[in-house]
Amino acid sequence: MAALRSWADRAALDAGFAAEVAGHLAAGIAARGAASLVVSGGRTPAGFLQALATHPLDWSRVWVTLADERWVDADHDASNERLLRASLQQGPAAAAHVVGLKTAAASPQAGLAEVAERLAALPRPFDVVVLGMGDDGHTASLFPDAPELAAALASTAAVAALTPGAAPHARISLTPAALLDTGALYLHIVGADKQAVLERALADGPVEELPIRFALRQTRVPCSIQWAP
Ligand SMILES: O=C1O[C@H](COP(=O)(O)O)[C@@H](O)[C@H](O)[C@H]1O
Fold first, then answer.
1. In terms of CB atoms within 10 Å, which of 112, 116, 149, 202 comes out highest?
2. How far apart are alpha carbons 122 and 203 in whole angstroms?
3. In this structure, is residue 92 part of a structural domain?
4. Of 142, 144, 137, 141, which Cα lies nearest the Cα of 202?
């Protein structure tokens, strides 16, 4: 169950999508006094997060975490938390509570219990989950070539540890069980290459081949795809 919204360009997507997400967060604050947002890392979301930070919310009531993390420290160039803090925690949005997924544990596997505990602090269901997608069809850190993929897809736990074959860094990822526990679900992608991957993902084939299919095929929460060239 997925609907596609095509924007004229990336700047229009970042601004329009941020306004829509800010609306969900404002509604969450109004309804239960707090709101929760799960965002993705990688190259795609920086402009969207910067646009979101300009919205005049009561950011002290907003909890933000990541769909996944590379097992690197929060000041590492590859850290998704680093991107999140640099892009979103600006101006009034500096008051947002960022819940990182990297711990001092030696591996994602060893960090699972602590991360699950951290995530328990966020209002659930989440108000908004924003997924990204890689050119191999992975989303969050659910990589097609990770040996732990099938178990992570089927898990009832909130987080899983994965070791992608080709992509760098061991990973920790929210599972579909957690990612779908949300009032609003988005897939944020840009460019012709990702459009082509999306078309493949919307066609028949196993979820394990293109893991983003778990989000496109489920019927628990509508998935809105935000795309720009
Ligand atoms: O490794 C990751 O990749 C995906 C896609 O990233 P992008 O650079 O192609 O936008 C991202 O959604 C995920 O959070 C990240 O850890």
1. 149
2. 35
3. yes
4. 137
Atom of ligand 1 nearest to the CA of 135: 9
pTM above 0.95, yes or no: yes
Cβ–Cβ < 8 Å for 6, 225 = no
Q: Domain with 38 in it: what CATH number?
A: 3.40.50.1360
Domain extent at residue 55? 2-178+192-216
Kindly indicate whether the ipTM for this predicted assembly is greater than 0.95, answering yes or no: yes
Q: How far is the CA of 199 from the centre of ligand 1 (A)?
A: 18
Q: Is residue 222 part of a domain?
A: no
Residue with the two structure tokens 């819940």: 99
pLDDT digit of tens for each residue in the chain (229 aa)?
799 999 999 999 999 999 999 999 999 999 999 999 999 999 999 999 999 999 999 999 999 999 999 999 999 999 999 999 999 999 999 999 999 999 999 999 999 999 999 999 999 999 999 999 999 999 999 999 999 999 999 999 999 999 999 999 999 999 999 999 999 999 999 999 999 999 999 999 999 999 999 999 999 999 999 999 9
- Rounded distance from Cα 70 to ligand 1 centre (Å): 10
> Can you read off the two tokens belonging to residue 21?
């997400």
| Structural domains counted in the chain | 1
CA angle (41, 14, 31) in 5-degree steps? 85
Residue bearing the CA closest to ligand 1, atom 9: 134
